[in-house]
Design a protein that fits this description.
The protein contains three helices and seven strands; from the N terminus they run H-E-E-E-H-E-E-E-E-H. It is α+β, with helices and mostly antiparallel strands.
Length: about 150
């Protein structure tokens, strides 16, 4: 079944090319990137060395949510561009235990003002572990250096 955005006849890539001429436009809404990760002992929920739960932490999910959707940005960036995270939403649905493989599926939502927006789902087998969204602003490296110059 096609994603609802895929069913329209609007040429999204052509629109993006006109709106953001410096950026590569290789994706359409509904395109997918996946990433697999096995939960390691260092991925469990712990604060300052104290383990709270022996399940995949929000920290580890956040890292892998961002990596999953960054794959879109990596193919879109021109040589003088880079992506900067703008937001991350995670809604837990169930646990992932040490040794289990999590499959992260990122879905390209589109670009809004140079910001790459994606949804993400994390699953272990047929169990949904988490769902969420990510945002990444695509900027010129020169601009990023200006923004971060005091840090």
């Amino acid at each position: 079944m096609l994603h609802p955005w895929r069913e329209c006849r609007f040429d999204f890539c052509a629109f993006l090319a006109k709106t953001f001429p410096d950026m590569k436009h290789v994706f359409n809404p509904g395109d997918i990137k996946a990433y697999r990760s096995v939960v390691k002992p260092e991925d469990v929920a712990a604060f300052h060395g104290v383990v709270v739960h022996k399940v995949c932490s929000t920290f580890a999910l956040a890292r892998d949510f961002e990596w999953t959707t960054r794959q879109f940005a990596l193919e879109m960036l021109e040589g003088d561009e880079e992506g900067v995270g703008t937001y991350l939403e995670i809604s837990h649905k169930g646990p992932a235990f040490v040794g289990e493989e999590i499959v992260f599926t990122g879905v390209f939502g589109g670009l809004a003002g140079g910001e790459l927006v994606c949804t993400v789902e994390a699953r272990v087998g047929d169990r949904t572990i988490a769902r969420g969204k990510t945002g990444q602003k695509i900027l010129k490296v020169k601009k990023i250096k200006e923004i971060f110059k005091d840090g």
